[in-house]
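Consortium newsletter contribution from the modelling node. Members have asked for a concrete example of what our holo predictions look like. Here is one, prepared for the NAP complex that several groups have been discussing at recent meetings.
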Amino acid sequence: MTAKILEGTELSQQLMDGLKPRIARLVKKGIYPGLSVIILGEDPASLSYVKSKGKACERLGMRSETIMLSEKTGQKDLLTVISNLNTNPRVHGILVQMPLPKHIDENAVLEAIAPEKDVDGFTPVNMGRLLAGRDCFRPCTPNGIMVLLEKNNIDPAGKHAVIIGRSNIVGKPMAALLMQKRKGADATVTVCHSRTRKMADITRKADILIAAIGQPGFVKANMVKKGAVVIDVGINRVRDPEAEKGHRIVGDVDFEKVKEVAKAITPVPGGVGKLTIAMLMQNTVLAAEKLSGQHHKT
Ligand SMILES: NC(=O)c1ccc[n+]([C@@H]2O[C@H](COP(=O)([O-])OP(=O)(O)OC[C@H]3O[C@@H](n4cnc5c(N)ncnc54)[C@H](OP(=O)(O)O)[C@@H]3O)[C@@H](O)[C@H]2O)c1
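And here is the predicted structure:
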């Protein structure tokens, strides 16, 4: 059995195309959905993520700005930049690219972002709402995975979903979304992390296995139940002298071997990562609609 490949590239394009009429409606009223991204320093991976976010905005005719600050920027100055964006009516979404330099208190930064402009869904207000099953900005990567499952007719209801990784941006919100009492969720969720014992015994019981660890090829075929759905969130740069740039991107799953066991699997690149951007665009449009009173619940 070779797994069905759950492609993210085309789906991401479709989801972004689906936003165009909503954007056009806003533009007609003189509102250009706007995303402001703050980045401290020049980490190449972070710069590349920021660039792709800007490109996506451009493609959709949305306003985007990248505020590039020195790595040495002090916390007070950063909070002032955020505060100005909070009150700027042209800005609908605010995103601070992580990771931040060590001298910055990440929690203080997240607390400073206005929840109604928190298109990453990382502020405590949005995280709390998510956990409570209330209306909120859903974090982009886990929400992209929920959409990917839905579009591929994979219903998590009653299934055992195992997530490896408990970060605030992927693992925890992923668990919260999958365990919601609602259509498209309703899974039984187990979360594993670096202190989990006998992890393979747990992952082998997963109907849906989600790896968000940051360790290349961590999930081996013998950790996967035959017929499971495997979602690879990992983005790892590994050396490859044969590649043009001297490196290539791989996931947290041993793709070649696991695809022989799984029923469906996401590739890296071209899987979850693409959907993350589409979800960010969706959240920014939603923020613009809500802030301008144009959002009507369906
Ligand atoms: N596709 C996308 O759009 C997207 C978005 C975000 C992140 N990512 C990628 O996803 C991966 C995870 O990101 P993250 O931000 O969630 O990472 P993170 O904050 O570093 O968290 C990693 C998690 O994995 C656990 N872990 C690490 N090594 C482990 C091991 N050997 N066994 C079991 N658990 C282990 C850690 O456990 P402890 O908590 O016990 O330390 C932690 O909970 C990275 O490769 C990142 O680049 C991709």
